[in-house]
Amino acid sequence: MGHARAKIQPNRRKSFKPGKTRRRAGVARGAQRWLKHPADRAAGGTGDDGSDTMIALDWGTSNLRAYRLDGRGQVLDQVALANGITKVAPGGFPQALSDAVGPWLRDGERHVLLCGMVGSRQGWVEAPYLPCPASPADIAAALIEVPFADAQVKLIPGLSARDAAGTPEVMRGEETKLIGLMAALAGDGLVCMPGSHTKWARLAGGRIDGFSTYFTGEAFAALRAGTILGRMMTGEAIEPEGFHRGVARSGEAGHLLHHLFGVRTRALFGELSEAAGAGFLSGLLIGHEVRAAMPVAGTVRLVGDATLVGLYATAIAQCGGTALAMELDAAAAGLALIGEQVRWG
């Protein structure tokens, strides 16, 4: 039985284990081209001669990734830690920051830029959401000052939008990655960022025009672990044949809730093996998401975890679209681009 092949560029990003520090001299890809654009430099920045440096952090729920950047977006050093905001005690963020980047602070760094869930209600300081559409200059102008004794710290706000029915959408951290992607795209486009809460964002006219969120990753985990469907599945691997069948089922008549019960009945009648069950469920959910979010025969840029990017690329191709994997550290590129426009005191 043949399957649609994902039209996807290979993702060569190397894994980086939390808790390890790696020194790297390289440009946050996509950043340098933007940094040299005169219109963006007019918003104010540190200059592009590499004389000024900055610490930048993507601080999420579970993990933290910190970069030491020069004035051209060059990554001088970086560190990743499994110390997300849920692992920081109340009032403990200043010490957590010092623990993460202490050597750089002691080396004289005085500018720190933060993005991610560190700006949520459960984080260090809550940053109000900035409504879409939003440009890099809009975001840079809305930074929040964060009190910290050893350096000037600024926090990037999250973004908000509303769907066609007026229901709010929110993101924190992804906006910075999208800014990094803008320079790499050099034009408009549709971007998918797979995860527990997958984001589909529209980039147009040099701005993040809007976005929508899909609960797919978390729904899969809950259905797999907490319902009768999971009792008819073995193993954690996503079996490719089962995944393809799930995506195909998502295109047939019937509501998602009806399709979900079919996962159980197919197993009862011997039409779906326990080994293929998790893949079928994953394909079913991602297939429904892709068909709802992607224009017919659309092109979608993907950025994120390589495994998830591969699954989404397969589903996009099977649903008639084209998937392009973006090979860059989008967080580092976005932090560099926003940081270049910051007016430091």
What is the average of the pLDDT values? Answer: 87
Percent range for β-strand residues: 15-25%
CATH superfamily of the largest domain: 2-keto-3-deoxy-galactonokinase, substrate binding domain
Shape: elongated
Domains (count): 2
Task: Report the oligomer.
Answer: single chain
Report on the biggest sheet: 8 strands, mixed
The DSSP helix count reads 11
The helix-strand sequence is EEHHEEEHEEHEEEEHEEEHHHHEHEH
Indicate the topology.
Elements: E1 21-22, E2 26-27, H1 31-35, H2 38-41, E3 53-59, E4 64-70, E5 74-81, H3 93-106, E6 111-115, E7 130-131, H4 136-141, E8 144-146, E9 152-155, E10 159-162, E11 168-171, H5 174-185, E12 189-193, E13 198-204, E14 207-214, H6 216-226, H7 240-250, H8 256-268, H9 274-293, E15 299-302, H10 306-318, E16 322-325, H11 330-340
Parallel strand pairs: 3-6, 6-9, 7-10, 12-15, 15-16
Antiparallel strand pairs: 1-5, 2-5, 3-4, 4-5, 8-9, 10-11, 12-13, 13-14
Helix pairs in contact: 5-11, 6-9, 7-9, 7-10, 8-9, 9-10
Report on the structure:
This protein has helices spanning 31-35, 38-41, 93-106, 136-141, 174-185, 216-226, 240-250, 256-268, 274-293, 306-318, 330-340, and strands at 21-22, 26-27, 53-59, 64-70, 74-81, 111-115, 130-131, 144-146, 152-155, 159-162, 168-171, 189-193, 198-204, 207-214, 299-302, 322-325. It is of the alpha/beta class and 345 residues long. The protein has two domains: 21-186 and 331-340, 2-keto-3-deoxy-galactonokinase, substrate binding domain (Nucleotidyltransferase, domain 5, 2-Layer Sandwich); 216-325, 2-keto-3-deoxy-galactonokinase, C-terminal domain (Nucleotidyltransferase, domain 5), CATH 3.30.420.310. Strands 1, 2, 3, 4, 5, 6, 8 and 9 form an eight-stranded mixed β-sheet that branches. Strands 14-13-12-15-16 form a five-stranded mixed β-sheet. Strand 13 and strand 14 form a beta hairpin.
